[in-house]
């Protein structure tokens, strides 16, 4: 068995697969279980050593006089604690003591609870305290223990613990002991039983054997045909997904659905290449509000907390953040427009229509949202066209064709009335509500005093100027002419900004006054369709204070089709092609959505993006920021990345002198440490602390970035490494000294001078041995950590040991060796070898592996070693060619079993936890290789990768690129499919299934359990 959680052991102690802890009252059950386990051998095909289990049970196996010493010794030598749970065990101090000792030595994850009587604690009622079976020490270590159930077993009867009714429990027990899944054990046991039956049935006559063989061949061919059919359908689906992606950006969901269906049949690089870039741009549904089919406009409140829409049942108002309905209003028909007051307390609706066939109500109604009550009705003689509040919602301006009225909201005083010369094109209230601006089609633009209804000033348009807009603070006026946009001071005509942008429509300030936007005029061409005309439009956004262009997008001509996020980092657009796109402030598209049927777009106060469609659904979305699983931006290049052992945190060290702790699930920084200079960072193996080295000091922090302690160092450090148990930290000093520190409170306990720069440091898995190598003196030194003495004479090899690592089982140590070349050849030569030592003798196990250097990584079972090489082929004195490969070696035989070709040098590599796949990084991106077939499964092509980390569960890959970004990616196709289903809002329709799939009865692409779409 592979020890999944090795600890230091006494050399003389036996290695037990499991220690049975039990109450003496459960002795017979423990005895029978131990007998069955000792008689068991795992079947082949599970990757396990085929041998009997070594099971320790104290009554017959204890040695030594002292109980506590014997327990501690045998617990230390055991891989698992097999805990017999019952009310008797719960009361036993011996059992509780054994649990506590084992948790301290090996951790709670190595406990295998077996329930032989009583009730699981969480199943017991208040009056069933005596029937609880889980000991307190177990509950303290595991919040929710999951036990193998043997409560129906009678130790005094003739039942067998591994047969009949208890076969399932037996397989679960074996799976927990071996660290496998129950299905793997059951399948292999079933296969072994099948083989036994075949042996028994071998006496059957030749005719029967021939028939069975013929049947087996037929089944094999049938299976091959089925697999070939599945592969063909998968390839066809990938091609259809690619076609949909290229045909229209609106077909993103169809393309993703087809790529998912392809991956479900056969995971291929081609399907992932289609799926991943689109998945990274798909928004994630957060919440849906169903309002009913829309019959008119949809608007958002200025504070971004509410949404209102005209439906057949009236105007409905909802809270965006909770999804709760606030009010239903019933304005007089025909409803033309409506608006929230800035303070969110009131709502105004305007009625009327230019259609003479419709019954008319020319009225503006003011509603109090708290109780959905109409508090004022302002009648007009024409349809109500415009509704404007002042800054705090105290005053309301309402206009029809020629008359404007200003009313103090809630006042009993009649509104002030203004008659203008011409059709009112626009109007605005000053922030305090004391002045009114009106613009007409006769170029009569005036500022009125509201109290006296007198004109205070004219705002004339110069020759060529057609449009005018006031800033929200009424300090500036923006006008558009044939050749430019001018921003002047209101009243003085002093120009403060001149934007050279010709043929623009009416400019408009955003509500906060930060931005000015306008769209380019489009000359109508009878040869162009409406869609083509709309696609030719452009919307431009400028900084209203500085005048520079901030954002430009084609296909958007209306200001309500462009919205800016509350933090100003993103711009959302609804384009003429009915595609919703989210852009970063650098004009990089980060998300995309099919906008068919979308009536309005906006942002909620919490930053979530909002769409409202004509079917009456208001959908809130999380902006994925162009990420697949996570996108973690930094201020400068990333120096290192590392996952904590539980995978819940990701630690990054950046050249912007900030050490960050991220939650990889949300892509958010949960803690950070600012450093005064470039720092080196080391993460403790327990994942609870990290050490920051700056100059001559090292500081220990917890994952909340709280400083625990700081220690001085004699010199700076060029590198460090923790022992696997976290007891020791070794540092490579800039003074050429290796220092050994006791942790977690750093205390120097030894140092050794190497007289040269230190190239590499490595601890053995049992933390008993430390190895270091030098940069120029080509030396490697091996120390016994406990005695601080050299174990063997120093190794010496020309070229030097650049990198040293131990196999996880500690049996081998590998070192990459550089080759040195003399001469002034213009040809760049890179070559090397890998030396492998047997750590029991520190002798080389075989000649060095040639053309192997670069990366150096063992698989988790220590059977495979990954290296990389730059292979040079010289054709003349000045001509040469290079090959870049990663190699997989069988450690036991030294044979190369896989050659993985790359177009560029390999910079990093790591096995997944199951040892079945290898991740490599190079200047063209990151690759994932399936080792059983050598098939490439994933490729990130964004930019060169210089650091990678694989999450402990094998689900995520984190990569650091040259764009100052750490990105996380899904490694397993199943997780990629699940994430796609979280972002998809629909399945393939039955018509689409029949058109594109048609390899069986219709089935949803995303089961309800994996989809987050409402």
Write up this protein.
It is a single chain. 17% of the residues lie in helices and 39% in strands. β1, α1 (27-38) and β2 (55-57) form a beta-alpha-beta unit. The protein is of the alpha+beta class and 1014 residues long. The strands form 17 sheets. It has a five-stranded parallel β-sheet, sandwiched between helices. Among the domains are: 16-200, 3-Layer(aba) Sandwich (Rossmann fold), CATH 3.40.50.10140; 206-282 and 984-997, no CATH class. It is elongated and about 105 Å long. The chain contains 14 helices and 70 strands.
Tally of DSSP β-strands: 70
Instruction: State the CATH class of the domain at 16-200.
Output: Alpha Beta
Average of the residue pLDDT scores: 88
CA radius of gyration is 37 Å
* Apparent shape: elongated
Low-confidence stretches: 1-13, 821-830, 1010-1014
Distance between the termini: 46 Å
CATH topology grouping of the domain at 16-200: Rossmann fold
SS strand fraction: 35-45%
Helix-strand blueprint:
Elements: E1 16-21, H1 27-38, E2 55-57, H2 58-61, H3 67-76, E3 78-85, H4 87-91, H5 93-106, E4 111-115, H6 136-141, E5 148-149, H7 167-178, H8 182-200, H9 206-247, H10 252-265, H11 269-279, E6 284-290, E7 294-300, E8 306-311, E9 314-319, E10 325-329, E11 335-340, E12 346-351, E13 363-368, E14 373-379, E15 386-389, E16 395-399, E17 403-408, E18 416-419, E19 424-429, E20 435-440, E21 445-449, E22 454-458, E23 467-470, E24 476-480, E25 485-489, E26 495-499, E27 508-509, E28 515-519, H12 530-535, E29 538-543, E30 549-554, E31 562-564, E32 570-574, E33 579-584, E34 589-594, E35 598-603, E36 609-613, E37 617-622, E38 630-633, E39 638-643, E40 650-654, E41 658-663, E42 668-674, E43 680-683, E44 689-694, E45 697-702, E46 707-712, E47 717-722, E48 728-733, E49 737-742, E50 747-753, E51 758-763, E52 769-774, E53 779-784, E54 795-796, E55 801-806, E56 812-818, E57 832-838, E58 843-844, E59 849-850, E60 853-858, E61 864-874, E62 880-890, E63 896-902, E64 906-911, E65 917-922, E66 925-930, E67 935-940, E68 945-950, ...
Parallel strand pairs: 1-2, 1-3, 3-4, 4-5
Antiparallel strand pairs: 6-37, 7-8, 8-9, 9-10, 11-12, 12-13, 13-14, 15-16, 16-17, 17-18, 19-20, 20-21, 21-22, 23-24, 24-25, 25-26, 27-28, 28-29, 29-30, 31-32, 32-33, 33-34, 35-36, 36-37, 38-70, 39-40, 40-41, 41-42, 43-44, 44-45, 45-46, 47-48, 48-49, 49-50, 51-52, 52-53, 53-54, 55-56, 56-57, 57-58, ...
Helix pairs in contact: 3-5, 7-8, 9-10, 9-11, 10-11, 10-13
């Amino acid at each position: 068995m592979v020890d999944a959680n090795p600890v230091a052991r006494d050399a003389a102690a036996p290695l037990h697969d499991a220690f049975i802890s039990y109450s003496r009252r459960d002795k017979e059950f423990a005895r029978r279980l131990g007998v069955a386990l000792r008689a068991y051998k795992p079947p082949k095909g599970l990757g396990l050593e085929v041998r009997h289990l070594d099971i320790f049970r104290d009554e017959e196996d204890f040695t030594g006089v002292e109980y506590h010493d014997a327990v501690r010794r045998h617990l230390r030598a055991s891989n698992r604690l097999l805990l017999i749970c019952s009310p008797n065990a719960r009361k036993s101090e011996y059992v509780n003591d054994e649990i506590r000792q084992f948790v301290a030595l090996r951790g709670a994850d190595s406990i295998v609870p077996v329930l032989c009587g009583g009730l699981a604690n969480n199943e017991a009622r208040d009056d069933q305290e005596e029937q609880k079976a889980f000991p307190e020490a177990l509950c303290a270590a595991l919040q929710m223990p999951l036990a193998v159930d043997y409560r129906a077993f009678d130790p005094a009867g003739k039942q067998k613990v591994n047969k009949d009714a208890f076969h399932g429990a037996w397989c679960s027990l074996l799976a927990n002991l071996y660290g496998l899944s129950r299905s793997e054990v059951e399948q292999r046991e079933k296969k072994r039983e099948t083989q036994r039956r075949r042996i028994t049935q071998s006496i059957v006559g030749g005719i029967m054997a021939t028939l069975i063989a013929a049947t087996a061949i037929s089944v094999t061919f049938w299976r091959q045909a089925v697999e070939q059919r599945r592969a063909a359908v998968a390839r066809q689906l990938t091609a259809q997904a690619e076609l949909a992606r290229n045909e229209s950006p609106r077909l993103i969901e169809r393309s993703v659905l087809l790529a998912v269906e392809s991956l479900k049949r056969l995971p291929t690089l081609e399907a992932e290449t289609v799926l991943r870039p689109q998945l990274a741009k798909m928004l994630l549904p957060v919440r849906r509000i169903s309002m009913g089919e829309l019959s008119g406009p949809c608007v958002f409140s200025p504070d971004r907390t509410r949404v209102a829409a005209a439906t057949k049942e009236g105007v409905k108002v909802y809270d965006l953040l909770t999804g709760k309905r606030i009010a239903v209003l019933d304005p007089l028909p025909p409803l033309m427009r409506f608006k929230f007051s800035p303070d969110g307390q009131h709502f105004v609706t305007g009625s009327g229509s230019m259609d003479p066939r419709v019954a008319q109500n020319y009225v503006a109604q003011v509603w109090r949202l708290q109780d959905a009550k109409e508090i004022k009705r302002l009648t007009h003689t024409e349809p109500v066209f415009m509704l404007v509040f002042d800054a705090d919602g105290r005053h309301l301006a309402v206009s029809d064709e020629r008359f404007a009225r200003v009313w103090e909201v809630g006042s009993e005083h009649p509104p002030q009335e203004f008659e203008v010369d011409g059709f009112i094109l626009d109007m605005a209230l000053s922030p305090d509500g004391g002045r009114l601006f009106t613009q007409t089609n006769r170029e009569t633009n005036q500022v009125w005093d509201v109290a006296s209804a007198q004109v205070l000033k004219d705002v004339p348009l110069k020759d060529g100027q057609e449009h005018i807009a006031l800033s929200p603070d009424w300090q500036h006026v923006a006008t558009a002419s044939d050749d430019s946009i001018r921003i002047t001071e209101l009243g003085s005509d002093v120009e403060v900004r001149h934007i050279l942008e010709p043929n623009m429509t009416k400019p408009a300030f955003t509500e906060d006054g930060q931005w000015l936007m306008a769209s380019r005029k489009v000359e109508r061409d009878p040869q162009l369709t409406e869609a083509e005309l709309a696609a030719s439009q452009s919307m431009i956004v400028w900084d209203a204070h500085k005048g520079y262009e901030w954002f430009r997008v084609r296909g958007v001509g209306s200001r309500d089709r462009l919205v800016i996020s509350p933090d100003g980092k993103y711009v959302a657009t609804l384009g003429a092609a009915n595609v919703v796109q989210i852009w970063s402030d650098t004009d990089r598209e980060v998300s995309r959505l099919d906008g068919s049927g979308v009536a309005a777009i906006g942002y909620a106060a919490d930053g979530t993006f909002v769409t409202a469609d004509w079917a009456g659904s208001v959908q809130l979305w999380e902006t994925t920021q162009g990420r697949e699983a996570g996108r973690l931006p930094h201020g400068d290049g990333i120096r290192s990345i590392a996952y904590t052992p539980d995978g819940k945190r990701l630690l990054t060290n950046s050249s912007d002198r900030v050490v960050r702790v991220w939650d990889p699930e949300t892509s958010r920084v949960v803690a950070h440490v600012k450093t005064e200079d470039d720092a080196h960072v080391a993460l403790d193996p327990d994942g609870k602390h990290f050490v920051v080295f700056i100059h001559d000091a090292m500081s220990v922090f917890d994952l909340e970035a709280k400083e625990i302690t700081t220690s001085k160092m004699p010199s700076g450090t060029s590198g460090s490494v923790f022992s696997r148990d976290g007891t020791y930290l070794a540092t490579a000093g800039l003074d050429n000294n290796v220092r050994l520190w006791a942790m977690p409170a750093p205390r120097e306990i030894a140092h050794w001078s190497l007289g040269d720069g230190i190239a590499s440091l490595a601890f053995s898995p049992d933390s008993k041995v430390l190895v270091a190598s030098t940069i120029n003196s080509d030396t490697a030194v091996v120390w016994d950590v406990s005695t601080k003495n050299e174990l063997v004479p120093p190794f010496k090899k020309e070229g030097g040991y650049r990198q040293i690592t131990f196999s996880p089982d500690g049996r081998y140590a590998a070192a990459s060796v550089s080759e040195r070349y003399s001469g002034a050849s213009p040809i760049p030569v890179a070559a090397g070898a890998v030396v492998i030592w047997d750590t029991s003798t520190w002798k080389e196990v075989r000649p060095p592996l040639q053309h192997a250097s670069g990366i150096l990584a063992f698989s988790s079972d220590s059977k495979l070693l990954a290296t990389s090489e730059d292979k040079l082929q010289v054709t003349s004195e000045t001509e040469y060619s290079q090959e870049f490969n990663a190699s997989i070696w069988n450690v036991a035989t030294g044979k190369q079993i896989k050659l993985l070709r790359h177009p560029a040098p390999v910079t990093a590599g790591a096995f997944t936890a199951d040892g079945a796949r290898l991740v490599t990084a190079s200047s063209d991106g990151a690759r994932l290789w399936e080792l059983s077939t050598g098939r490439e499964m994933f490729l990130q092509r964004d930019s060169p990768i210089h650091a990678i980390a694989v999450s402990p569960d094998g689900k995520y890959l984190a990569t650091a690129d040259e764009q100052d970004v750490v990105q996380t990616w899904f490694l397993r196709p199943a997780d990629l499919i699940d994430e796609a289903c979280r972002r998809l809002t629909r399945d393939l329709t039955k018509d689409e299934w029949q058109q594109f799939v048609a390899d069986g009865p219709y089935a949803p692409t995303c089961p309800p359990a994996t989809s987050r779409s409402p």
